[in-house]
Every structure is written in structure tokens, then in C-alpha cells.
Amino acid sequence: MSFILQQQGPFGLFFAFAIAHSLADFPLQGDYLARVKQRRNASTMFEWVAALTAHSLIHAGAVWIVSGSMMFGFIELVLHWLVDLGKGEGKYGYATDQTLHLSCKAVYVVLMALGITLS
């Protein structure tokens, strides 16, 4: 069980995930990653995949730090990559993108509150 969940309960844990998400999606992303993680803005396929993966790794690290679970961090890497791929390809907009990301965090909270940490 994470320290935050123990000390603050599920709502405190979700709040910590939301704060970490905001930090990773805004100041830690920067203009370059925000632009090039979209395939149409990258010069090469490698640049696009590297930018999208780097951005997703920042989120994975944030989830790992908050949850204490490397597996939740890995799951976040994959899910964040896929959600941002969909947004970058124009499948949905900003509101849906953010809702999907925060929904992932809500699922992590529920799993952790149930004692499922995937450590």
C-alpha cells in the first residue's frame, strides 16, 4: 500500500495522481514534446516515436512515484502512449484525452484501495 493511500485515503491518492499528471502534462512536457509527439509535426518516424515515448515515460515515472508500483508505472507508459496517439491522430480532442488519462488514475486508485498493487 502506498504511503499516500495510507495517510490520505483514496481521495488523497487520486489528488496526488492528478497533481502529478498536471505536472507531467504541462511544465514537464515542454513545447518540443507537445509538438513532436504528434506524428504530423515530427520530421521522422523515429523523432515522433521518441517524443511520444519520452512524454509517456515522464507520466510513467510520476505514476510509479505516487503509487510505489513499477507495474502501474509501466501500465501508465502503455496507456498514456495509446491515449496520446489517439489524440494526435485526431480521433478525439483535449477534453476526451484528459478524461481518459484521469480515468486511468481513478482505476489505479480503486485497484490500490482493494489491495492490488501489481508490485
From TrEMBL:
InterPro entries: Phage_phiKZ_Orf197. It comes from the Bacteria. The chain crosses the membrane at residues 48-79. Pfam families: DUF3307. Keywords: Membrane, Transmembrane, Transmembrane helix. This is DUF3307 domain-containing protein. It comes from Luteolibacter luteus.
